[in-house]
Amino acid sequence: MEYINKIYKESNLELNDSISTYNGWGAQQNPNTFEAFHNFLREIKPKRIIEIGTSIGGLTTFIDYTCKLLELDCKLISFDINELSFYKGMRENGIDIRIEDIFSDDYRVVKQEIIDFINEDGVTLVLCDGGYKIGEFNLLSKYIKSGDYIMAHDYAEDSEVFNDKVYKKIWNWHEICDNDINGACELNNLEPYNKEIFDNVAWVCKKKV
User: Fold this and answer.
1) Which of 40, 124, 153, 158 is a plausible cystine mate for 129, CB 3.0–4.6 Å?
2) Is this structure's pTM higher than 0.85?
3) Domain residue limits, the chain
4) Which tens digits make up the pLDDT trace of 86-112?
């Protein structure tokens, strides 16, 4: 099924406003993120998705909606460390939101149940959009299997690219760059995936080969 544009509001980077609204769901995302994720999910057909950082829930809800729209047999689990009032309604709609810190303080250990979940049969997609994306990416990339994908938000290749091409054009926040993850990518056989598309919405996307 083709992407349907239901964007009601776009983020205003001149005003440092990060919120884009799709179908009434607010997300701290570049407005083109919705189409990029729709097409990506349709292509890779994940069996499970782990999202670190539910935040205000718009992207989580969109991903759940899109998986159902595309009739994907996909289990989505979203983790945050803070309970927000509207999570109750999201849970009532079948979204699995868990208030839990799954990482050790130094981001060297993740709970075994997460490792086990990642390694179930079929494609796993890991989304790193919590409070420390570098630690999340570098740790969880150790456990994804061949054919899985890992992504992180608030990305630009480096500070020069961010200042020249991203800031106030694509996204105003820069929390992870190539130097932060190059070691993990080399160690874990991760290759860029749809780089141009995801660069344009401030996400990095890697596939394990």
Assistant:
1) 153
2) yes
3) 30-208
4) 999 999 999 999 999 999 999 999 999
